[in-house]
# Entry
Amino acid sequence: MLLNQRISVGYFLREIKFQILFITLFAVLIGILDELPQFQKISLPLSIPALLGTAVSLLLAFRTSQSYERWWEARIIWGAIVNDSRTLIRQIIQFLPESRTKDIEEFVERQVIWNYALGESLRKLPFTDRVQQYINTHHIHALNVPNALLDGHSEHVRKVAAEGLISDFKQIQLNETILRLCDSMGKCERLKNTVFPRSYSILLHILIYVFAFILPFGLDDSQLIVEVVITILIPVVFIAIEKTSILMQDPFENTPVDTPMTSLAQTIEINLKQMIGDQGLPDKKENSQYFVM
# Structure
């Protein structure tokens, strides 16, 4: 996730550097050709590129709105995961007898691992050594590891209920919290697997480049430098807006505009361990980059 105080302009420029290069070469070429007598006669009413520019602006506004909505939904989901993780452990601490410290610690460890495993699964990254070690130790053989970990929660709740340590009502409350975690996981998977329509992106790309092509023919030929600058500036602004939308539309792709799942998982781990009085809290190092993951 990009940080407000240190947003890197260079990152965005690197993302669209080839488009900038193409538009610049095109603008310079048109400027050179415009000096030739046979090209000076070619002219279009300014209303034509203005109309197309308006259409591109409207499509970009819709695209940006939809992309931000996906990004914001992902952040809301992970906010719910933070709250439900705390709620689950708080219920476990309150419902189980103080003598069952081991059971409480198992719930905490499983929930901590679940948060890390979910983030790594959504980013399609190999599991870290810590998560992989937990998987190997507990002999978890599943394609969807986060879902298997939630199954572990449910099974553990069933066992303590069978021992008479919690009432049926408390068991229902715990299962409802686990259900909310499962629901959040499903929403994340839906966002991950639902791609933005490719046809919309292709249409927008075509319109931007058509606009860039006809724009010089609607400008005044007497001011060559101004014509070249405008031919570069306006299409590049459109391309930058579109690229920003493309980056935001996929909030689980391990990029600077990603949902900071690793950072949130670390926060959850610290909170849960503090709740049970664990002194072995992980160090949350100060971020030295302009974004957090």
Remarks:
- The mean pLDDT is 86.
